[in-house]
Structure formats: C-alpha cells, structure tokens
Amino acid sequence: MSKFSSASVKLLVDGIDLTPLLTESISHSNEGVTEQSNPFGSVAEGHDPVGMTKGSLVVGGGYFDEAVDLLHAGLADSGLSDTPAATSRVVNVFVEGQTAGNHCTGYEGVYSQKYEVLDSNGKLTRANVGYQVTGKADEQAVILAPLAAITADGDTHLTPYDAADDSTAERHPITGASVEAGATSIITCPDDHNLTSGDVIAIFDMAGGITPDINDSGAGAWQYVGHTVTVINATSFSIPVDVTNDGTGGYFVVVSQPTGGAGYLQVTAGSGVTNYVGKIKHSVDGTVWVDLVTFADTTTDYSTAQRVATATPTTQVRRYLAVYDDVTGAGSLTRFMGFGRG
Question: What is residue 62's predicted lDDT score, i.e. its pLDDT?
C-alpha cells in the first residue's frame, strides 16, 4: 500500500492552482444529499436520496492575500464576505501526487465559500476557507495526464491506463473453473461476484493446469483483453472459452462495464496557443482507439476547467484509456486530464 504526504497534495479550482497557498491542512469529504420523507405522525425520521452529491473541502491556515485572489477566488473587490457565492465550478483534489494511474476526486456543481481570516501578532495573516460543491462527484477519478506543460500534439496510447492495473480495483476470489459442454466455461466464486452480463473481466493466478490458460496473460483472444461474462447466479458466471480441464483458485478484476463516467480537464497556464482540444479515448485491446470524451476548444483561455460526461450513463467504458492533445499555435499550455468511471 502506498503512502502519501503533503507534497502529494494539489487543489485545482476552475483552472486556478490553489496549492501554493495551502500551508496547514486540507480535508475533503463527500455526502449523498437526502430529503426528509417521513409523513406527519411518524415516530422515526426518514430520508430519501435526491440523486446529488455534496462535496466539502476545508483549507486550514492558508496564506491570506486578497490581491492574488487565489485562495479567495470569487471575492468581490469591496472586501471579504462570509456569504457563500453560488457559482458553478469544476474542482479537482489530489492527495496521491501527479502520477498517471493514481487517483483524484473531481467535482462539478454549485460552488460556495466561507472565509475566516486569522490575524496573529507578529505573524502573516492566514485564513480558514470552506468550499462546498453540490452536484456531481467522482471519488476515484484516475489521473490520465498529470498537470504539466505541453507544446505540441501528443497522446498516451503507447502507455495507456489499464483498468486491470488499477490499485483500487477489487480482487474477487475465484473457487475454480469447470469444463462444460459447448464452448463455455463456468467460473464459480465463494462470494457474490456482483457482475452483470456483458461485463468484462481479467483473470489472474488461476492454477490447476487449466487448458487453455484463461489467465489474462494466457495465449488466446482474451490475452490482455479479458472475458465477457454471462451471469448464471450470484456466485457463478460463464465465459466463452472451451476448456478441457478444470482450474482452481485465482481472482478476477472487472475491466469494463456499461457505467459511463466523466472526463476532467484543467488548464492552469499558457501562452501562444490559439486553440486546444483535449480528448480521452478508450480501447478494448490497447490497439484500436475510439473517442470517449471530447472537451470543448479552450482557445486562448489559460485558466479554465471542464467536466464532460460520456454520451450516456450506460456507455461501455473499455479497459484502456488514453489522452490525445490537439494543440494549435506556437507556445505552451499547462493541463491536467482525468476520468472517473460511473
């Protein structure tokens, strides 16, 4: 398990990097918004979800600098106000550093702030700032392109993100695989597998001399692609491979599901670039790529952010993800891209 420190933290709000002003602490949490639903006369209070998520961010002891207008983004020129200003923003919070394949939390929605200025004798003035975003949240968005400057077109299709390698992917134990009549094999699990027919999985560490080798590295059409499953019951499913002897043990990881998701783009600096279009593409096998999310042209806006959802909430997000940069103009642009599966 990896451990991270304050050097790994970054906070981006609408293309503004607030990290340089964070000095003591930052915390964030997510909450499902509910509405009281019990009728009059009830002896117990009831609540139903309304389909929204509220994200709360608290910055403790950040440097106060009204002229910079960073930590206090959105302040009126007339001075401080503790009245939250309802503004739609895109926010990304990083605690695992800026490494491709690591994770961040993304928010989009109504954004508000509350300020508390801290004056101490003989010390720089600091402030506690509370941010609240009510709207959409992606708690395990993956970093596809760390925040960095680019000067030309490029892509990451030769070093893509592979869902099978995700450190947060759940490893579901397998009891074994059995020989069946026809071109299928039944996989059994000791616990509920929580799969839906059409999901794609990758199998690892199955033993017992199973033939052919249905592990992810096995020589077959499934090699580094995975198996499409058909659910039989809560603890068993079939895959379209005709095995000639049983296998035992191992585990599987889900690499593709029809759950949709959303891409994130943050542009924090730039000059000389006249047009920039970022894309996130996905692939079944890491070879053939198709568009998943396309961000709007940022033109010469060097402080902007976007959250773009997939075409539908049930879009089948494939195993491999890569970013594509389309840059026009002689200059540079600093950007981050990530994706959160639904």
Answer: 57
